[in-house]
Specification:
Radius of gyration: 40 Å
Strand content: 35-45%
Low-confidence stretches: 1-58
Number of domains: 4
Mean pLDDT: 86
Largest sheet: 6 strands, antiparallel
Length: 776
């Protein structure tokens, strides 16, 4: 097959601003012969759209199937045949026409490209070809010009070519087509990424091209600045865009958690990229993919319950807000069974090769750490080696270990097992910020105690995580305390509460000074009879936002579970010394008798041990989480008498009405904390409330809020004596710590007995129950 090529011959005269880094004028005076009217043209399958239109190799044009030119036959100065359309037929390798035109050696023939049915009228009285077609060149009505040449079709429609034919004999006329537009060529490292407005070039092979009317000024605006070019036929100019936008910036904020009723919430995305020097920015497009089952695999399958969600965007240098709509859930069928049966029937989570991270709910939320984690199913679990709640929603929760403010009765820096000031969240890592830590070697783990034989097992350290298993064969409602060690020294410990309880069905108590969202059962509660579960199970989807050529980030769209767990009024729960994080074994729930527990190496067979000491420090209690310490000098477990052990910025013994600022010593699960004193002040010293008659059968009392069906059951769990650790008043009295101290030696608590409720105080070394409230 013959190939007829038309060399791009032109000139650009430029008036460029100082930004242009490189300008090069190039002569292109050689013309390639085009052949006769019956021409054959190479079909270039490497053209940008697969070879169906004119393609460009350097500055050479190749005609392909379907291209059209307009032909004139002129005798003297009169056009005898005007604008006859010839179309290239690739199959026949020829140009054909349905119009009426004849060959005559006395005629002069002219052709132009691209063909239009309504061209300008040539003036064949003029001497030169350019003058004859001057209206084509000035193109006042833009018949051969598109400002937006970003598509191949628009680029070709702007590629004006004109020729006077040469009689080749045998009724054949040959045209040497000459380009009549100036050509701007944008190359360099940043050319492909440059975004133009107004006059938009065509991109091919990392280079951009734009065809301009000759002898006119054409203005270009790209990411950098605005500049102008003036062009004349016969030249082209190259402009190098040297800067590459290679630094990607992506910030995403997911929607807040939805309730079971669904609804619409907003999320925001900021997506852009910067040049190498960081002085210029432009938007970066993004797309969304979804992980609906938590396996870490993302695809385009959006969950059906996420009914409206924007799956892609052009990006922006400022936050763009979008809406996500979630459908309402259907209520689960009420289930009544023993807690152990419910737990055993739950779908196991994690695996021996992929442990379930308790601090991120299996990767469905940002990391939030605590000293207690709730487990609802058998499986393989891990938790990060982080001090208490030092990480919250994926960020460094500095206030939890380095409280701010003037704390004359408190400390501005909590300490670890060695008595060293904690400067960053992680026990093991080094450095500062959310990924920093105290650089302590952790090389072992052990059980302290658990109240179900085999409840947890297979403790191991894996990098910066503690791993353990809750076997399906021995799962039951219960508690365990697991510690990690550096050599033989315990450096921290965690309480694992295995329970069907979710803490989602809470009761709002409005004291008049503060509103508290109170959990339905004590921390670590183990009931003695069947559990009934009803309400709405949670569901979530992890969304990954990925920039084109850049970064990616994830966020979670989640409907929080709203499960009501009705538990038995009788049971047992652990005890806590004021200001400590450590759970002590409960009673058997019916008498002043220790519950049977199962212990690890070196721990007393009861799971706890009383020790009188006037020298025990916070670090000492961390190293011996099973020891019930008593200091006869200040009636606390340690020598220090800080007011802010459980409420980071507290500096008073008054009726504290603000929300608790949870500390790294708080014993509650993520999202919950010990309440400030105002809650129990309202129960025991004021407020419009009624207390039911003490229930001697179930050993406890109900506090009524005044709202029908809204009440709190508080078991009379008794307490552990400050001076001996021995159990007392189990079944006849209830004792619930607040985060507020009474003095340097005593803590505030709610007490109730057979006939009254009191807001009282007791030695900090006493072992009382904890009823958490939602953290604010």
């Amino acid at each position: 097959m013959k190939a007829k090529l038309f060399l791009f011959t032109m000139m650009l005269t430029t008036a460029l601003t100082a930004f242009m880094s490189c300008t090069e004028d190039i002569d292109a005076n050689n013309h390639a012969t085009a052949g006769s009217l019956k021409i054959t043209v190479r079909s270039d399958n490497d053209s940008p759209d697969g070879g169906t239109r004119t393609s460009y190799s350097g500055f050479v044009t190749t005609f392909t199937d379907g291209d059209q030119i307009g032909v004139y036959a002129v005798k003297g100065t009169t056009a005898l045949f005007s604008n006859i359309c010839f179309t290239y037929d690739a199959d026949g390798d020829e140009w054909t026409t349905t119009g009426n035109i004849e060959y005559n050696s006395d005629y002069t023939y002219f052709a132009y490209y691209p063909y239009t049915s309504t061209p300008y009228t040539p003036d064949f009285t003029q001497a030169t070809v350019d003058n004859k077609f001057s209206l084509f060149l000035t193109d006042a009505s833009n018949k051969f010009h598109r400002a937006d040449q970003s598509t191949l079709a628009n680029y070709q429609a702007s590629d004006l070519m004109i020729a006077q034919g040469v009689d080749a004999g045998s009724s054949t006329v040959t045209f040497t087509m000459l380009h009549k537009k100036g050509l701007a060529v944008f190359n360099g490292e940043g050319a492909a990424e440059a975004t133009f407005t107004g006059n938009i070039p065509y991109l091919m092979s990392s280079t951009k091209y734009f065809l301009m009317k000759p002898s006119t000024s054409t203005e270009f605006t790209d990411d950098e600045e605005t500049y102008s070019l003036s062009a004349s036929a016969g030249r082209y100019v190259t402009h190098s865009i040297a800067e590459s936008y290679n630094t990607f910036i992506l910030s995403v904020t997911g929607p807040a958690a939805y309730t079971y009723s669904g609804g619409t919430k907003s999320y925001s995305i900021t997506s852009y990229k910067q040049n190498s020097s960081g002085t210029k920015s432009k938007a970066a497009a993004w797309t969304a993919t979804y992980d609906t089952d938590g396996d870490g695999v993302f695809d385009d399958s959006k969950p059906s319950w996420l009914t409206a969600f924007t799956a892609s965007g052009d990006g922006s240098t400022t936050a763009s807000n979008y809406s996500a709509t979630v459908s309402a859930q259907s209520a689960m069928s009420p289930t009544s069974a023993s807690a152990s049966a419910i737990l055993a029937a739950a779908t196991a989570v994690g695996s021996s090769s992929d442990y379930y991270d308790l601090s991120t709910n299996g990767g469905s939320s940002s990391m939030t750490t605590a000293n207690c984690y709730m487990v609802h199913a058998p499986g393989y679990y891990k938790l990060p080696l982080v001090y208490g709640n030092a990480i919250k929603a994926g960020a460094d929760n500095t206030v939890a270990y380095k409280p701010t403010g003037s704390l004359s009765n408190g400390t501005n820096n909590f300490v670890n097992h060695a008595g060293s000031n904690i400067s960053a969240p992680w026990i093991t890592k080094s450095g500062s910020g959310v990924n920093g830590g105290m650089n302590i070697t952790v090389d072992g783990a052990q059980l302290i105690w658990q109240d179900v034989n085999g409840l947890t097992s297979n403790y191991a350290i894996d990098g910066d995580y503690l791993k353990f298993q809750v076997p399906a064969g021995s799962i039951a409602e219960g508690n365990a305390v697991i510690a990690v060690k550096s050599g033989s020294t315990i450096v921290w410990s965690w309480h694992i509460w295995v329970t069907p309880q979710t803490y989602s069905n809470r009761t709002t108590v409005a004291t008049g000074s503060h509103n508290y969202s109170v959990t339905p059962v004590n921390l670590g509660w183990v009931g003695s009879s069947n559990v009934t579960m009803s309400g709405y199970e949670g569901r979530s989807c992890t969304v990954k936002i990925t920039q084109t050529g850049g970064d990616s980030k994830t966020f979670t769209v989640a409907q929080a579970e709203n499960i009501t767990v009705t538990v038995s009024k009788t049971g047992n729960s652990p005890f806590y010394q004021w200001g400590r994080k450590d759970a002590f074994p409960p009673s058997n729930g019916t008498a002043n008798t220790d519950k049977t527990v199962y212990v690890g190496s070196g721990v007393d067979t009861k799971g706890w041990y009383y020790e009188a000491s006037t020298t025990s420090t916070i670090g000492t209690t961390i190293q011996y989480p099973w020891k019930h310490y008593y200091n006869s000098s200040n009636y606390g477990p340690v020598t220090t008498t800080y007011y802010n052990m459980w409420d980071a910025q507290n500096n008073t013994t008054d009726n504290v009405t603000s929300a608790t600022k949870k500390t790294i010593y708080d014993p509650c699960p993520p999202g919950f904390c010990v309440p400030t004193g105002n809650l129990w002040y309202y129960f025991g010293n004021g407020g419009n409330r009624t207390m039911s008659t003490f229930d001697t059968t179930n050993k406890g009392a109900t506090w009524n809020t005044g709202i029908t069906g809204d009440a709190l059951w508080l078991p009379a769990a008794g307490y552990r004596s400050s001076s001996s650790g021995a159990l007392d008043n189990v079944g006849s009295g209830g004792y619930y710590w607040s985060a507020t101290p009474y003095s340097s030696t005593n803590g505030r608590f709610l007490g109730f007995y057979s006939g009254n409720w009191v807001w009282d105080y007791a030695h900090r070394a006493s072992g009382f129950s904890v009823r958490p409230v939602a953290e604010e």
